[in-house]
Task: inverse folding
């Protein structure tokens, strides 16, 4: 239009004003069409990557997004857990390694509430992973549970951060506890290494703490196990209610 105006003999000032007016008037008219076409092309690209958007304007919003917060468990992941590493007898074992420690493997099976039904495991995903690990280690879990009968338990709670069971074999009564590392280590006085009972020192606790931190930095959920043999008198064995009161009081 600027050139046409000059050819028609219009004044320069009039031609400039006319050209600017047409440019300003044309841009808003074409802008919605340009945006729609651009967003449609973006949706086509997303559709090829199996991402369908109901509202085209959402594409623009997504393009401005910098941080996405999502519920990981069951959304990004399958909510299935697996034992990756085990620290026992001052050694770090991979999940596929065979552990020659009957006491430890039995503790995993006894302090566990998972049950089987038609080939399916019923229970917390963490405990299911521990249950499967015991099977992979070749343990007959049902036989161990029949041998070491559970006579009482203290369920896990957010205050104690521990779960405890009391199991009995003949006249031997044993308390088995699992929970967070900090909660367990504070109550331990000894550690078993290669079948030998040793007094746990502050240096050893720091060493174990460093291992726990390393495992946590791998995004692993870390659990610690401990046990204690309970010596009960005949009177305490006879009066089970008193035994329960004694146990819960001691645990608190």
Result:
């Amino acid at each position: 239009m600027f050139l046409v105006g000059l050819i028609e003999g219009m004044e320069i000032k009039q031609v400039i004003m006319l050209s600017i007016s047409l440019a300003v008037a044309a841009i808003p008219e074409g802008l919605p069409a340009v945006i729609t076409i651009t967003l449609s092309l973006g949706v086509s690209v997303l559709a090829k990557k199996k991402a369908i958007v109901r509202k085209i304007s959402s594409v623009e919003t997504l393009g401005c997004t910098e941080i996405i917060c999502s519920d990981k468990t069951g959304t990004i992941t399958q909510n299935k857990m697996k034992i990756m590493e085990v620290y026992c007898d001052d050694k770090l074992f991979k999940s596929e390694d065979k552990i020659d420690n009957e006491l430890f493997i039995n503790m995993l099976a006894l302090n566990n509430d998972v049950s089987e039904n038609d080939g399916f495991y019923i229970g917390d995903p963490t405990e299911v992973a521990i249950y499967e690990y015991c099977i992979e280690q070749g343990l007959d879990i049902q036989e161990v549970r029949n041998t070491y009968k559970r006579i009482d338990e203290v369920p896990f709670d957010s205050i104690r951060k521990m779960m405890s069971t009391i199991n009995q074999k003949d006249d031997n009564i044993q308390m088995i506890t699992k929970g967070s590392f900090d909660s367990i280590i504070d109550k331990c006085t000894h550690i078993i290494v290669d079948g030998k009972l040793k007094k746990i020192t502050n240096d050893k606790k720091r060493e174990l703490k460093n291992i726990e931190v390393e495992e946590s930095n791998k995004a692993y959920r870390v659990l610690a196990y401990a046990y204690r043999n309970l010596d009960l008198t005949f009177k305490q064995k006879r009066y089970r209610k008193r035994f329960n009161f004694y146990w819960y009081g001691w645990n608190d």
